Structures are given as C-alpha cells and as structure tokens.
Amino acid sequence: MPKYYRNKNFRNYLFLFLSAVPLLIHLYINLFAGYGYFRDELYYIACSNRPAAGYVDQPPLSILLLNLSRYLFGDSLFALRSIPAVLSGLTVYITCLLVKETGGKTFATILAALAVILSPVYLAMNSYYSMNSIDIFLWSLAFYLVILIFKKDKTVYWVILGFVIGLGLLNKTGFLWFAAGLMLGLLLSDKRKELLTFKPYLTVLTALIIFSPYVIWNFQNDFAHIEFIRNAVLIKYSGLDYSDFITGQLLNQGPVSVFIWVTGLYFFLFYETGIKFRIVAIIFISVFIILLVNGHSKAEYLSPAYTVLFAGGSVLIERKTIVRSNWIRYVLLIPLCLSGILTAPLAAPLLPVETFISYSNALGIKYSSSENKELSELPQFFADMHGWEEMASNVSKVYMSLQRDERLRTVIYGQNYGEASAMEFFRNKYPIPRTISSHNSYWLWGYGNIDDPVMIIIGGKKEDLDEIFEEVEESLIHTADYSMPYENNLPIFIARKMKIPVNELWRRIKNYN
C-alpha cells in the first residue's frame, strides 16, 4: 500500500479513536456513576411533552431532538444523556478536522483532542442533556466550515454554513454572537470582497429561514424570549461582573489549556500559515467583547468558541517543537492530562457524593453560584441533581391525605420550573395530580380550568398565601439530602377558597427569568 494511503488510514483511525474517548467516558458516567435527573433535564422533558415552535427560555431544536430521543429510547437517564455523550465524540472529531485543515499532524491532533476531552466545562456540559452540548458541537462545525470557505471558496460551503448557523440559532439564540463575529470578520479580512457577491447573503438567508419559526413564535407571544433574557441579565445573573467573566475563561477550559488556546489566538492572528484564517480570531475576539461589555455574562457562554483555538494552538506548538524540542511536547502533555484527571470529578458526576465532598474539601475548593444562591456541601450543578423524587413522594403523600372529593379538584403549584417539572415526571410513579407554575414556559401553558380548586403549594410563606386563600394549612416539611438549600426544608401547604379571581392572579405572578 502506498505511503499516502497508509498515512491517510492512520489519521482516520486516530480521529476515530480520539473521538471514542469522550463518548466512552460519558457512557461510563451514565451507566455506573452520575446522580439523579438534573433540574433542567426535567424541564426539557416537560417541554418535550408540549412540542412547539418555541419556549420562553429557549428555541425549540433541543426540545424537538429530545422528543425524538424519548420516542425511540425512553426516559431513562442513560437514554437521555446518550445524546450529549455522542455529541462530545463528534465535537472531538470536528476538532481533529480543524487540526487537519490548519496544517497539523499527529501530535497536534492528539494535543487538541485532549484539550477538548479534558476541558472541565465541556466535560460538565456533555454530562447531562441540554442545549449546551448541541451548541458546542455546532460552533465547532461552523468554525470548520469557515476554514473550508477560506481554503476552497465553494458556494456549497456558504450554504451549509447558513444551515448550521440557522440550526445554531434554533438551538440557542447566543449563536447570534457567532454570526456577528463572522460579519465583522468578513469586513476586516481580505475576504471582504465576498460581500460584493451573493454568497454571504445566501448564508444569511438560509439561516434566517431556518430560524424564522422561533422569530414568528416570539411575535405571537409578546417577545417572551427577549423579556426572559432581560430579566435574567438584570436579576438572575446580576451578581456577575467583568472579573467573573474573565477569570472564568481561565478556569473553565482548565489551567494548563490556557497555554494552548492563547497560542491558538496568536496562530490565527499573526503566524504565517494561520493568518489566512484570521477571521477565526476576529470571531472569537468579537464574541469575547460582546459578552464582556454585557457586564453580566456567564463565563461559559464563550466556551463553544474554544475548540478552534485548541486546534490552531496545537498546530503552532507542533511546528515549533518539530526538530529539537520534543521535550516541550511532554512538558505540556503531562500536566494537561494530570490537571484534566484532577479536575474531572469536579466537573462531572464521577464520584459518589460523600467521596466527592471529601475530595473537594481536600483540594480546598470553595464553590459559588452564578445565580446568587446559597450552597451547601455540593456545587449548584450537582445539588440540582438531588431531591426531586423525594419532593414528588412528599407531595404525593399530601395529596393522598385529602378526601376523595377534594383530590378530584386538586392542583399542584410549583414555585419554579424545577419543582413543577419534577412533579410531572414522577407522576408515573406516585399519585400526583395536574401541576402548574408561573415560571417561564409554565406560565404560558396556563392554569387550565380551575373551579374552586384545592391547591397543594410547594414552598412559599404562609402569610403571603393568606392574602390569596381563605384557608391555608402547612401539611409537612420536605427535606432531601444534598439538594440546593432553597429546595430543602420546604413547607408544603394545602390552600382552599381563593380570594382573587384566578385570571387576575395569573397575570400578577408571571415569572420569566
């Protein structure tokens, strides 16, 4: 066999092997580790029970994909989290292709792939079902298409890029930042002449057509998503500032990886072979500035943009160490792997809870919440995987304590989408009636037909409920180990005889954030 084909086959096998590593890691977590259902996973399941062109807090793509997955494979944690596991492998595969297209060989491929595999934020986001794993994959794919456009300038790549941007927007509106960076990159690079052709506008048109259902949905629902974003920035993430965002960039990708992605930024801005793809760096810098100027952006919002920098940095490191400096490769690879292994249990649910607490205490880790929430032994990400079934069981006990005639007109009220969606999910296991909430899409889904209801209300204060109901009694206190403090020691009330018309009350309690 000619050497060319041997090398090609070796590279293909290497790509597949490296892509299989994160897939196997996450399949292991799903089978043998992990905790319970994450708060947002329960909400996504609730959304997937109501297929639509949009939701208050997200576009529909991730929900439609989940709907298909549930139809084919069911609702088990393993099935639910298999999609992000597969996407983690596909993201590494695209990273390998990015290395190839920017001139990298074997070492660069391995280094870039390991940087992605061991990235704490990627490990975390691919360990549960959400729009984030899809977002990371689509950003990587979009960067790959941009590089192909600059290398080969085929119209078909512009069309595919528009399709990917459209899907990205239909998954998470933050993809607009990529689109803005792309337009600025075209203006500032030697590809600005393409703006005089139809190709970039074909990309825009394709993306808008795909994204249009969510735009129309927002017109029909009083721009609910815009209201949600505004409230999230002003209320939910108001405690975040510029320093949180900047330090988060150093921590989320891993402390050693900073040397790779900073090198990647230099590669695309100044290095002789990388400079022809300078648009990549312009996109990254543009998105960084947009998020920084916002003042309350979560650090992980920029995370999908790093795979291409890992690729470029690995190529440059490989080129600079190819002759006499092989030792530098090991100097970088060894701490990258060691730090990745050290931080992995902090990013994904790999360890039993008690072991995790001991491990994080031994490292002296102090956790904080981006939502200004009080924490207990676990970080919010892990704590939100605990307590939901216990809550459903306790609510069911309260429900079954009612007289039969009252149970027929009982409605559960959850203060937030986590509580409401948990009640919905576990009603197949416990006797639980219909659930409503005023939080995000639950408010849009409404309260249904309520005629003299008996309300079981999760949490809140009795004095507040006394203003709405004539009769309010505390039935029990819900407790659960390791859950978020604001979801623990919750009173569960039984409330009867509403004083306020329900339609008037519903308008007052809308909560988009």
Characteristic terms for this protein:
2 domains; alpha/beta; 25 helices; five-stranded mixed sheet; 513 residues
What does this structure look like?
It contains 25 helices and 5 strands. It is of the alpha/beta class and 513 residues long. It has 2 domains: 10-355, no CATH class; 388-508, no CATH class. It has a 5-stranded mixed beta sheet. It is globular and about 80 Å long. The mean pLDDT is 93.
Write the layout of secondary structure elements.
Elements (H helix, E strand, L loop, with lengths): L2 H30 L6 H10 L12 H13 L3 H4 L1 H20 L4 H12 L2 H6 L5 H22 L2 H17 L3 H14 L10 H22 L3 H13 L5 H11 L5 H13 L7 H17 L12 H14 L5 H22 L5 H11 L16 H4 L4 H13 L3 H4 L2 E5 L2 H9 L9 E3 L3 H5 L8 E5 L3 H5 L2 E10 L11 E9 L3 H7 L5
Parallel strand pairs: 1-2, 1-3
Antiparallel strand pairs: 3-5, 4-5
Helix pairs in contact: 1-5, 1-6, 2-3, 2-22, 5-6, 5-8, 5-16, 6-16, 6-17, 8-9, 9-10, 9-11, 10-15, 14-15, 14-16, 20-22
How would you briefly describe this protein structure?
This protein has 513 residues and is of the alpha/beta class. It has helices at residues 3-32, 39-48, 61-73, 77-80, 82-101, 106-117, 120-125, 131-152, 155-171, 175-188, 199-220, 224-236, 242-252, 258-270, 278-294, 307-320, 326-347, 353-363, 380-383, 388-400, 404-407, 417-425, 441-445, 462-466, 502-508, and strands spanning 410-414, 435-437, 454-458, 469-478, 490-498. It has 25 helices and five strands.
